[in-house]
Amino acid sequence: MFSGPLAEYSDRLSLEALGVPADAYYIRELGTDSRFRKQGMCTRAIDELCLHASAAHRTVSVRTREDNVALTSILDKKSFTFIGGCSAETGGAASNRVVYTKALS
After folding, report:
1. How many structural domains is the chain composed of?
2. From CA 20, how far away is CA 44, in angstroms rounded?
3. CA proximity to 42, closest of 19, 56, 12, 62
4. CATH no. for residue 6?
5. Which tens digits make up the pLDDT trace of 40-52?
């Protein structure tokens, strides 16, 4: 997992074009090895990251693989909103990603 203020990422402009606020706390990749799914790890990680981010940010955004149904389901349950898709280079190959965002209170 890579996370931090959006301003620290090279893909910031393409994410801002999707609607990710410039001051968002950005989780660049989040996923769990399939052997560890169904144990609540991602749910707890998202809860903790939102709590951490809320100290200095009004929005948190998450990017993950398009086919990561487990995580996108968790994001839906946690009131994140799908805002769009993008491509990413991983290991020299392009793959599809999706971006979700949530306003923090």
Report:
1. 1
2. 23
3. 62
4. 3.40.630.30
5. 888 898 898 899 8
Burial 66-90 (b: 16+ CB within 10 A, else e): eebeebbebbeebebeeeeeeebee
What phi, psi does 85 have (nearest 5°)? -120, 160
Range of the domain at 61: 2-103
pLDDT tens for each residue of 70-94: 889 999 999 999 988 876 655 555 5
pLDDT digit string, tens, across residues 5-38? 665 555 666 777 777 877 888 877 777 777 888 8
Distance in angstroms between the alpha carbons of the first and the last residue of the chain: 24
Q: What is the pTM of this model?
A: 0.77
